[in-house]
């Protein structure tokens, strides 16, 4: 029995040392997401900027309960402004390959509000607004701040200026709804089919709402509509999640028509979808 116990201890020590050897190149990087493409996540860390390479096997997770378990999260959660912890290792070419990306739901909520141009206080105030008139007055009073916030939201899409737009689609919605119509599903299916033929493509998604209702509700609607499109592209069109840029909840910003008419409001209840390819990968003249 003593001899067996000795062998078991020895085997455990060997396995521990072996595990340490194999994990020698593994490390964890913590930072703030600044930009993201289909294959690369750029982080701002305490030591400077760090590019992280994404693969289809990269896990995106958030601690659940006491943190002992982890919940799988959508790739669309990887938005600029989100604090993340990335576990991975360097490959033979010196690229840092992400094996697991973890973030807290509180940090995701904060990043989402920054992206949407909202602060927690503004959300509570907007949620208590009872009339469109009050909403308009609030928007006018805080126009400068809203404009600044909107510029921040647009900036993460402006960072994609090195990309050529190859295909576009606009999806429209019924007032107060975020479900996709059959015709829109067909348009998205055709768009996805064209996109998957391209090398290094990414799909940009922006959701919008008309001015009916309060600002907080419209912000949520624009987000839900964007995610409805993202989910359809991933689940029904088999678009890999890492090829989709996090959806933008644009609220009532950038209306394409007047919100004073039913026809105009219908045009503003939309999601804009663009298929883009990096200019360095795009053949000249295409």
TrEMBL record:
Compartments where found: Cell outer membrane
SUPFAM superfamilies the record matches: OmpA-like
Domain OmpA-like: 160-279
Major place of residence: membrane
GO cellular component, one term: cell outer membrane
Keywords: Cell outer membrane, Membrane, Signal
Signal peptide: 1-23
Pfam families, alphabetized: DUF5666 (PF18914), OmpA (PF00691)
PANTHER family attached to this UniProt entry: LIPOPROTEIN YIAD-RELATED, STATOR ELEMENT OF FLAGELLAR MOTOR COMPLEX
Protein name: Outer membrane protein, OmpA/MotB family
